[in-house]
Amino acid sequence: MHTSIRRVVFVASVSLFSTFSALWAQSAGSAGTLSGVITDPSGAVLPGAVVSLINPVSGFNRNSTTDSGGHYLFTNIPLNPYHVTVTGSGFSSLAQDVEIESTVPVVLNESLKVGTSSTVVNVEAADLLESSSVFHTDVDRGLFQKLPLETPSSTLSSLVTLSSPGVAADSNGLFHGLGDHASNSFSLDGQPITDQQSKVFSNQIPSNSIQSIEVISGAPPAEYGDKTALIINVTTRSGQGVTKPTGSVTTSYGTFGTATGAFDISYGGPKWGNFFEIDGLNTGRFLDPAEFAVFHAKGNEQNVFDRIDRQFSEKNSVHLNLTYSRSWFQTPNTYDNLQVQNVTSGGSGANPVFSNVGDTDQRNKIETFNISPIFTRIVGTNSVFNFAPYIRHDQYNYYPSHNLLADLGPVGTESIAQQRQLTNAGARTDLSYIKGRNNFKAGAVYSQTFLREHDQLGLVDSTFNAPCVDATGASQSGFNDPSQCASAGLISNDASVGGTFNPDLLPFDLTRGGGLYSYSGQTDIKELALYVQDQIKAGNWNFNLGIRGDLYNGLAVSRQAEPRVGAAYNVKRTGTVLRASYARTLETPFNENLVISSQGCSNNILSPLLACQGGNATVAPGFKNEFHAGLQQAFGKNVVISGDYIWKYTHNAFDFSVVGNTPITFPIDWHNSKIPGFALRADVPNFHNLTAFVVMSGVAARFFPPQTAGAGATVGQSGFPFRIDHDERYNETTHLQYQTPFKHGPFIGFNWRFDSGLTAGAVPCFNPTGANSPCGGVILNGVDYIDLSKLTADQQAQAGLTCNGVKATPFAGLPGLCQANQLTSNLVSIPAPNTEDDDKNPPRIAHRNLFDLSVGEDNLFKGDKHRISLRITAVNLTNKVALYNFLSTFSGTHYVTPRAMTAEIGYHF
């Protein structure tokens, strides 16, 4: 970089108004603006000069050509440091660094000298570093457009999982950040969204509407609250400044009959803009099934997104986001869900009749809309004010099988129907101010979340609440009163004689002629947050100081003052940034099924149906203390590495439990959790047309009983600490992307994902004497045996179990007892006999290596204004058979996708 290059950060001044007198443009919301005037050595304006703005690490790259007045303008810029170059015919090129770190507009006026122009952008080591105490990952559209992504119905989740360190991949588009259970929040152009965003909770914003993402995995600044394990800042695409309409039409078809179609268009002027996107998906594999074979897994999705920008004056602008999404999908079946046998008559007598009641046929529908306007006003010469009301609504419907008795399964004792609404309405406001060394921001967020839950439940397992048992204590079908047992040679299961029969459940036992139990619950959760923060630069030091206050008023009440502090030091001679940070955060409960999970365990009917283990307390907020220490190191101009060591302690740590074979989950509270670990990312921005990154992490998720609130959960009953089912020792993603050096040449994108395997507590093993082991086992004649009788043949096959060389199949299981040293699996990791420990050595999913490939051409026929693109993508290239999880407390059993091939063609204008 030229020796005259200097790093500058300066804000709107008197020249701001002269610059905008002609253009009247600024970014509304959470993005930045850069503008200025380019002149020649005499001071005359220079039209036709090309200004380039790049961030080599994120892949952001834009150009602007000065107009007749020498003005250039960049709007909707993600907050990051950038490298600016200016070139003009007959003039020497000029390069400079600029930091866009606030919504306060930045003005950069430059004068070119006479000389020879160069169009080569030179990137130096300093351009790869950020003097920030907050560990984060930036990915721009230019990079993730060519990233092979696992699922078309939640591409944003796939993008975060692949590109960000510290993320454990889970099924159905879910991901767990830095050891916390799905404690992630999204900031959509500044709008906070802290509710779950996987396929089974809410419809995500389509990735085609995203310009860039920033994933904060370090200690969160004071402006962020609620769920802060990962904060995903999303900047959407804008049409402002796009004076000639641009857009694309794409369609694809692939494995599982997966078909997609999408259309987008950008159009605008200096003072207005519109970006519109619509897309649809139809597939035979919407969710991740519990079988590697795919059946009863169809689904479809439709998305509409519109962003409108309008500049009213030099000072005032408005930005409006409008989103509507709808998805419909089946809950995937297992072989155990086919041709279900259940009681069809005589259920309350001595001789109930069992017949085929058909296949399980559970379905889901989710509708989501979001309206988020943002008003922005420039105040004075160096501050910006934002005010942004918003409303977001999720309508979730879960439909049981047409014959409710078909909902019986090995993990399903009840049939459930659900209609659930979540409406989040609120407003945020903030004032940003930059002066000298200070980058100050103060703000407030108020939200009110309206939860409405309606459930209908009925027992479909004739042995779950049996009035009679046999001599071995096994529950018997039939009968509706313990007094009938003796005459049939059976034993009463009445509670008065130590039994478990609950007469309150009898009216809702569908196998004995009962009906459905209806539950309705609702609450309004009010949250107010106030915060102030300041980023202070002092020489090579960069300090981040802030404090946040949260007031939570829902089913429980909590108040919390949350200091945030961080420091970074730039060792310029070695290209090193050292950093450390601390944050205290208020941890709020998950809103999905929060009411029934808090109230159901005190209900005599719901408590057994929901398998309550943690008493009848309300799921309440907790608090977290987290510490980060890390560094960023540049190696020349081609490689930069950034990493953090993490230690987090949470009081009232949150988890989910799942209901039977459904995607319906309940939030639960554990007493506390301790999470240490590391996260690391290495980037090769561009080396001879090769772009690459590697992310890796190892995070322990240690949770401590008791379960203090919430429905469900069966782990942690020993009272000892245990690894939650998203704990993973190590994972990494390597991405390579090569653009052939020809003027119009194909690109190749390649992913390698390694996962060491999540905890899988339901895997059978042998350890009858371990203090912190639920394994059990049987010793016969001095030989150790593992008990497999609690698993069906299909569950044994799902776990890939083999006993003495004989492999379980979905229709032929293994013997009830297998010698401990003869039980093996290629899908799960079974601890050696007498070594299992829920904390130190739990059973796990077997490690897996997955490979994805994408090959494409962006301009197939070498067009100028009209281009045809073609892309072929292969996910799980080697067709690896592997699990995400097995009988997980949270999500049951799910396989990774089999090899999926997709061909996409697009027209771009």
Structure characterization notes:
- With about 900 residues, the protein is mainly beta.
- About 5% of the residues lie in helices and about 50% in strands.
- The chain has six helices and 54 strands.
- It has a 22-stranded antiparallel β-barrel.
- Strand 18 (about 260-270) and strand 19 form a beta hairpin.
- The radius of gyration is 29 Å and the shape is elongated.
- The protein starts with 6 loop residues before the first strand and ends with a strand.
β-strand number: 54
> Number of helix segments?
6
Assign the structural class, choosing from mainly alpha, mainly beta, alpha/beta, alpha+beta, or little secondary structure.
mainly beta
CA-CA gap between termini: 35 Å
Q: Hey, roughly how much beta strand do the residues contain? A: over 45%
Report the biggest beta sheet as strand number plus sense, adding barrel if it closes.
22 strands, antiparallel, barrel
Short description:
It contains 6 helices and 54 strands.
Secondary structure elements and pairings:
Layout: E1 7-8, H1 14-23, E2 32-39, E3 50-55, E4 60-65, E5 71-77, E6 80-87, E7 94-100, E8 106-107, E9 110-111, E10 136-140, H2 141-144, H3 155-163, E11 167-169, E12 175-177, E13 184-188, E14 191-193, E15 210-216, E16 230-236, E17 246-254, E18 258-269, E19 272-283, E20 299-311, E21 316-330, E22 341-345, E23 353-356, E24 363-379, E25 383-399, E26 414-435, E27 438-459, E28 468-469, E29 491-492, E30 517-538, E31 541-553, E32 557-571, E33 576-587, H4 594-599, H5 606-609, E34 622-635, E35 639-658, E36 665-687, E37 690-699, E38 702-710, E39 722-723, E40 728-739, E41 747-755, E42 778-780, E43 783-787, H6 793-798, E44 801-803, E45 806-807, E46 817-819, E47 823-825, E48 828-829, E49 844-845, E50 848-857, E51 867-875, E52 883-888, E53 892-895, E54 900-908
Parallel strand pairs: 1-7, 2-8, 2-9, 13-16
Antiparallel strand pairs: 2-5, 3-4, 3-6, 6-7, 10-15, 11-12, 13-14, 15-16, 17-18, 17-54, 18-19, 19-20, 20-21, 21-24, 22-23, 24-25, 25-26, 26-27, 27-30, 28-29, 30-31, 31-32, 32-33, 33-34, 34-35, 35-36, 36-37, 36-38, 37-40, 38-39, 40-41, 41-50, 42-43, 43-46, 44-45, 44-47, 48-49, 50-51, 51-54, 52-53
